[in-house]
Write a structure and sequence with these properties.
mainly alpha; 9 helices; about 75% helix
Length: about 190
């Protein structure tokens, strides 16, 4: 069920940017663009489907074995670790990106569990603070480790962010006016290669 529910979402996420950002290439090579989007959406949907299926299979297998009558919390930790192996279905270039997007949700869940168990008091605005920290991590990776961020996300972020926000390259652009254009062209050529 997870695969069939996530496939249309991933297909639109794969095909939409191709149509919006590389429409000329889509007109030249429509079949290749659609096949690439279909394969990418299939791989990502398979990853999500495998993640859920492996987790449930681990827990249900444990419960199905007659020797284990009672659940233990470590069972769910092991099930999560086992299910996390499904990340190897994705391309290695997407793994860090998935970690960047999943880590904030994991931290938020951990904080909610800690608050629910009365280990830590409820702090007003904690969710906003965690969101800000998460976005800070993603923007830091975007700026200092660009290979960890999808080229589509980089291209869109570069179109949104001004020159003043992208500070490390401001000095270079001031001394060499064409530096920013060359950098933008390298980013766009990286997107077209993918």
């Amino acid at each position: 069920n997870t695969f069939s529910r996530s496939f249309p979402v991933y297909l639109s996420l794969s095909l939409g940017p191709s149509l919006a950002l590389r429409f000329k290439k889509f007109l030249r090579q429509p079949f290749q663009t659609v096949v690439r989007a279909f394969l990418g959406a299939s791989r990502s949907s398979l990853f999500l489907g495998a993640l859920c299926s492996m987790y449930y299979a681990f827990v249900l297998t444990h419960r199905g074995v007659g020797a284990f009558k009672q659940d233990n919390r470590f069972l769910y930790y092991w099930a999560g670790w086992f299910a996390s192996l499904s990340i190897f279905i994705e391309k290695s270039s997407r793994r860090m990106e998935l970690i960047l997007y999943a880590l904030p949700r994991g931290i938020d869940s951990l904080c909610q569990i800690i608050v629910d168990r009365n280990i830590m008091p409820s702090i007003p605005g904690l969710d906003v603070t965690l969101f800000c920290a998460s976005m800070g991590i993603i923007v830091t990776c975007f700026e200092h480790y660009p290979t960890t961020v999808n080229p589509w996300v980089s291209a869109i972020a570069r179109r949104i962010l001004t020159k003043d926000v992208i500070s490390p390259h401001r000095e270079r652009a001031a001394s060499d006016p064409d530096a920013l254009k060359r950098r933008r062209n390298r980013t766009l050529s990286t997107i077209e290669e993918e």
